[in-house]
Amino acid sequence: MARTWLILSALIVGLGAGVGWTRLGFAGLADAVSIADSVGGIWLDGLRMTIIPLVVSLLITGIAKTVDSARGDRVAMRSVILFIALLWISTAMAALLVPALLEMFPMPAEAARSLATSLSATAHIDAPTVGIGAFLRSIVPTNPVAAAANDALLPLILFTALFAVALARLPAAQREPVTAFFDTIASAVLLIVGWVLVLAPLGVLALAFGVGARAGTSAIGALAHYVLIVSSAGFAAWALAYPLAVFGGRVRLLAFARAVAPAQAVALSTQSSLASLPPMLKAAADLGVDRSVSRVSLPVAVAIFRVTSPAMNLAVAIYVAHWLGLPLAPAAIAAGAAVAAITTIGSVSLPGQVSYLTSIAPICVAMGVPIEPLALLIAVEMVPDLVRTVGNVTMDVAATTAIARLGPQAKEGAAHDDLSPPRAGDGLAHLAPSRSDTADQAGAMS
């Protein structure tokens, strides 16, 4: 939270300095903006260089662990299947909802023009024009290495996902050394990302100065508009939890709302799904969910399931395109939706700023949308992140009620019925990443 407030302060100071320098007519504005663009661009390049290795390594380890979890327990298998289905449903909703909202409530035209101009010095703006036929042909890579070199994220992610699923089917003696190798790569790259993020206040300050100098006060209204649009995508995914609990879990709407309220309160105050696990277990018990189900399904949900993430991440990428005046073809939105839904599986136990950049940057790259605006938008992620966390916690409990009604209880879980009350860590050991910094990251996880 200290870093979050520091980045937000850098945004405010940078915008204020840029606007003030322009309004007061101080000399040397062009040189100051040029230096700020260079500093901000170098910081963005530092983030950009980590995208490919981090996406590949996290996706391989995330999918391998997810498949391994589903293989070992019938409740876990039903949980993973339902979670993946809900991720795709929420992503599809965002792909339809966000363009419609931007059509009905667009950013003010003058603000959009000035903001697009303010980033023209650092952003490579090239509207994606790929047709549906070319898009379908591009999904399967003829050369995964060339796809990585050319920032063709969707074919690279497809190959990586297939490789991870195949890896998960190998005997443990063959599988574990490979997953450990990629887990080590992920740990090393995350350290690099952490070092780059130490300089985030400086990078945001520099980029915000350039935006303030060129766009003036219109940037402030645009950021508020962004928060509302992206949060709407999160609210839509969050709202899915209630009909799922009523029709899938066969619980009364008011009973579900009362039971899940304490977990929502913890999520709102901590911005952590992991911290909300104990009240989620209590909510499931209050709704009549057998402990043999909730003690498997909810830890799996906390580890791999974030229903709002692909919807809100895709919303950010679509919003950036809207910001820069880039028309998005259906093929581009479809590519972004696929990347958003697939890469969510690999985003395990990452701190807020890291997960924001590493989850959304691949979507932008796949859609042909510049990532430069993300450096400013991360500074106001605090409010959307609250929506993310509360929505995830609500859906975790709703999905668990539905899983409990899908079939007979798994025999593996039934043996625990007479044990002591469930602990927050039960069921997480086989899913937790092996990276040594996970404990430090867990408090910021959404």
Task: Walk me through what this model shows.
The structure is a single chain. The protein has helices at 2-24, 29-48, 51-72, 74-104, 109-118, 132-138, 144-149, 153-168, 172-198, 200-215, 218-239, 241-248, 253-270, 277-286, 291-304, 308-323, 330-343, 352-367, 374-377, 382-404, 411-414, 438-441. It is globular and about 70 Å long. The protein is an all-alpha fold. It has 22 helices and no strands.
How many DSSP helices? 22
Taking the alpha carbons of the first and last residues, their distance comes to 13 Å
Helix share, percent: over 70%
Uncertain ranges: 121-130, 409-446
* Radius of gyration, CA atoms, in whole angstroms: 22 Å
Computed structural class: mainly alpha
The number of domains: 1
* Main beta sheet strand tally, sense and closure: none
Portion in strands: under 5%
The average pLDDT score comes to 78
State the total count of DSSP E strands: 0
